[in-house]
Design brief:
Chain lengths: 314, 332
């Protein structure tokens, strides 16, 4: 089996900033906050977070915050809950959550909860269970979960449960591994996993493994490295990860590496990107691959980072 | 990126922009994540930042957001600002629908576009239902599993209506591709929620017939089996006692097809009290397998099914093995 070329991936993540005028860079500008989270978490999981200048990163992150308390995807960009969680996660990696004005961020997130318990992503009101997860994960990292109506939030997620045991983006929406991660993650963080039909969902999730060993996100779709994260973390949270062939999955992820230049792609021989590099490394972490730090399946952060935050009092 | 149909005179050379001083992106010190720009993109965004910072809600700003979106439809702030301008100018939102449709042709998996589209439809109200149904249909004709399009379509149905032809639309998509899980999900959505069909109780009988036919055509279709099970939601008893469910399992297994879903459905039925006649055991025993895979002949049918599944579906071997350990005492 091909091995994890960890050092090459570290070089890849660092080098991405030097690539000029690439298509990837242009389309990344507005979601640089997400990119920072993917890249930096990858470095931390590989034990190399110290190669970045943390003061510079933190000062940039803080410049992306708005008066409302929310964060934008870059300096001068409008706030959205998606970037707000990434900002909190990046600060968490450096153990710097305390520099935040916690009540300000909390107010921003709390203000996005709707009457039915769901969450909007921003002032324009789009609703999606992804936003429920993000709100809950973010507030939990800030020790502020008690500031929202958790019961209503949980009830809304439960309304998005389907007959196959999975979850969709809104009630009636098709089950999708990404949405399942969000819903199961939110239920795990709020201690509400009893709402999940674990055996039924576990079977649906393990049906996502295809012959190549990779996982897809819905029936009849192609396997993709990012689903090794979404499916695998969900299986771990509901305690059913032994139902898939872990060795074959690890091989699939390792086969998606660019062995020369570093980075991981969605499928073998495709172009690599930071997003799939992060999900590949995090997937290997969930598979307990040697040399990769353990990642928390619900918070999507290294376990030591999460422990430090959750054990410290608010 | 795709700007082929734009005639691109640089903004700095257009008279209508002479009074604006472009504002470059501040990437902070030593960017962590790479930001590099093509010249055209950089210039457009520099002018965008200028009008954004001066909060200029004008038609030239609107035009500029069109250009910025053409260069990168994923930029959240540009769409956000565009909505503010549209509101201020009291713009014709039907024209805006045309604009979105054009962009969506190239970027049908972009969250911003769908978000913007929903905002428009919400403002236009029930009159927009037909056009939104047609719009999603167009996108789904290119990719019948586009998650955003389905999500938008469900929102339109729930909020604005337009249910009349929805079941027929599901029929059509399933005729094109019976494995399309999104279409099966939509079918469940229509059958359980359409105000015109009377709900699951009224629809179950005909839906069971439809699904069984689909299963017989392609027994290896995960979606149709799960749909069948879903038709008996909260009514296990009818599911166990409906002879159509057990006999479709028998029918498929009798053709010596090693069908995972037929076997697992039969297993579930037995676990919930179904009493199989000897034909079921004969069909399972006649499946083409190595004897050693299946264990001792003294096993119960349920145990044998678990062993068969473990042998023919090794990726999920641990799951089937767990199912065997969980078998209620009654069926072992
Ligand atoms: Zn992917």
């Amino acid at each position: 089996m091909v091995e994890l070329v960890a050092e090459k991936h570290v070089q890849y993540v660092i080098s991405v900033e030097k690539k000029k005028d690439s298509f990837e860079s242009v389309v990344m500008e507005h979601l640089r906050m997400n990119g920072a989270y993917w890249g930096l978490t990858t470095l931390d999981l590989l034990g190399k977070l110290q190669v970045v200048d943390q003061d510079e990163v933190i000062s940039w992150v803080m410049q992306c915050q708005h008066e409302s308390g929310g964060f934008g995807g870059n300096i001068g960009h409008d706030p959205h809950i998606l970037y707000t969680l990434s900002a909190v996660q990046v600060l968490a990696l450096f153990d710097k959550i305390q520099i935040l004005d916690v009540s300000k961020v909390t107010n921003y997130v709390v203000g996005l909860q709707n009457e039915d318990g769901s969450f909007s992503g921003d002032m324009w009101g789009e609703v999606d269970t992804r936003f429920s997860y993000i709100a809950i994960c973010c507030l939990s990292l800030l020790h502020q979960l008690d500031k929202i109506d958790v019961e209503k939030a949980v009830n809304y997620i439960v309304r998005c449960k389907n007959l196959d045991g999975g979850f969709g983006c809104t009630p009636g929406g098709e089950s999708h591994a990404g949405q399942i991660f969000c819903c199961v993650g939110a239920l795990a963080i709020t201690g509400s996993l009893h709402h999940v039909d674990k055996d039924l969902l576990g079977w649906w999730l393990c049906e996502r493994q295809v012959k190549s060993g990779g996982l897809n996100g819905r029936p009849e779709k192609l396997p993709d490295v990012c689903y090794s994260w979404w499916v695998l973390s969900s299986l771990i949270m509901i305690d059913r990860v032994h139902w898939i062939d872990k060795e074959k999955l690890a091989k699939f992820i390792l086969d998606c590496q660019d062995l020369e230049k570093g980075g991981i792609s969605d499928r073998p021989d495709d172009a690599v990107d930071v997003f799939h590099t992060y999900f590949g490394v995090a997937g290997l972490s969930l598979l307990e691959y040697p040399g990769v730090k353990a990642v928390d399946p619900a918070y999507a952060l290294p376990v030591d980072v999460v422990n430090k935050i959750l054990i410290s009092s608010s | 990126m795709d700007s082929d149909d734009e005639q691109t005179i640089p903004l700095s050379q257009r008279p209508e922009w002479a009074d604006v001083k472009p504002v470059p992106q501040d990437d902070g010190p030593n960017p962590v994540v790479p930001i590099a720009y093509t010249d055209e993109f950089r210039e457009t965004m520099d002018y965008f930042r200028a009008v954004y910072l001066s909060d200029e809600h004008s038609s030239r700003s609107l035009q500029l957001t069109s250009e910025a979106i053409n260069l990168n439809a994923g930029n959240y702030t540009v769409w956000h600002f565009r909505r503010l301008i549209l509101e201020s100018l009291n713009a014709d939102l039907h024209e805006e629908l045309d604009f979105v449709e054009n962009i969506a042709k190239k970027n049908s998996k972009n969250y911003q576009i769908w978000h913007h589209r929903r905002w428009l439809a919400e403002k236009l109200g029930p009159d927009a239902a037909f056009r939104e149904i047609e719009f999603t249909k167009k996108i789904l004709s290119l990719d019948a599993k586009n998650y955003h399009a389905w999500s938008h379509r469900q929102w339109v149905l729930k909020t604005l209506g337009g249910w009349e032809d929805e079941l027929e639309y599901c029929n059509q998509l399933l005729r094109d591709d019976i494995f399309n899980n999104s279409a099966w999900n939509q079918r469940h959505f229509v059958v359980t929620r359409s105000p015109l069909l009377g709900g699951l109780d009224a629809m179950r009988d005909s839906e069971v017939d439809y699904t069984i036919e689909a299963i017989i055509t392609y027994p290896e279709n995960e979606s149709s089996w799960r749909y069948l099970r879903g038709l008996y939601k909260n009514d296990l008893k009818s599911w166990v006692n409906d002879p159509r469910v057990s006999s479709v399992c028998l029918k498929i297994l009798s053709t010596k097809t090693r069908c995972i879903f037929a076997l697992s459905t039969l297993l579930d039925l037995i676990c919930h009290g179904f009493q199989p006649s000897p034909e079921y055991e004969e069909a399972v025993n006649a499946l083409p397998l190595q004897r050693s895979d299946v264990g001792p002949s003294s096993s119960s049918l349920a145990e044998t099914i678990c062993s068969v599944l473990e042998a023919i579906d090794p990726l999920r071997g641990n799951y089937w093995n767990w199912r065997k350990e969980q078998l209620p005492a009654l069926v072992t």
